[in-house]
Write a structure and sequence with these properties.
globular; mainly alpha
Length: 221
């Protein structure tokens, strides 16, 4: 493992650890959380990119004929998330989630802005950091290692956010699925050589989760 790989690996651990500390000790508002993510996942990696000599941004093309093929993958993930919600709904600690949302200033009024932010910006930030920075940058050391590390960091990063929302068995199930999603998103990036497809599926997953949030906390129906 060269110096660049080591720095990226160490930095990814530190970034996720700092997020965990911030989330669980300081309980920041959502605005502060946004700023921290932008600094940790975009600004600092851009600075490191100049030092470590890896490309900050680049676009790839993808065959248009694959659009329908990828659509079915997105539909599959949406169904998996919705079925999980339907089957495990009574086991989820909704009061903890509601308390967490309220402490971050998320109300029925502000939810639409959070909805848009999480779907389109937060998902892109995560894809950039976990797939473009971690996965892509570690591939020259070991492809298998980059799959495992990027997916593990992706799962642990979310643990920092929802670590108190579920019973222990649901927490492990959530971490397992997030790890699998991380593998899937990395594979998708690897197959298409295009970050946007992973982002599209991330949007689909977040959309279903946000609709569930709306139904549970803000819907008057």
């Amino acid at each position: 493992m060269n110096k660049r790989n080591k720095i990226i690996l160490i930095y990814s651990v530190i970034a996720c650890l700092l997020l965990y500390i911030t989330e669980n000790i300081f309980h920041p508002t959502y605005a502060i959380q946004m700023i921290q993510k932008v600094l940790s996942f975009i600004v600092i990696p851009i600075i490191l990119s100049k030092y470590l000599w890896f490309t900050f941004w680049k676009f790839w093309k993808v065959e248009k004929s694959s659009i329908l093929y990828w659509f079915w993958f997105g539909l599959f993930w949406a169904i998996v998330i919705w079925l999980s919600y339907y089957l495990l709904r009574d086991s989820i600690q909704w009061w903890d989630i509601a308390s967490s949302l309220n402490s971050r200033g998320i109300t029925s009024t502000t939810f639409i802005f959070i909805f848009i932010y999480i779907m389109f910006w937060n998902s892109l930030v995560e894809e950039y950091f976990f797939r473009w920075i971690i996965f892509r940058s570690l591939k020259d050391f070991s492809k298998k290692f980059s799959y495992i590390i990027s997916s593990t960091m992706f799962a642990l990063y979310h643990f920092a956010i929802f670590g108190t929302w579920f019973h222990w068995y649901l927490l492990w199930l959530a971490l397992f699925w997030l790890f699998v999603w991380g593998l899937f998103f990395a594979w998708l990036y690897e197959e298409t050589k295009w970050i946007w497809w992973a982002w599209i599926f991330h949007i689909i997953a977040d959309f279903v989760i946000l609709v569930i949030w709306y139904i549970e906390f803000f819907s008057t129906i």
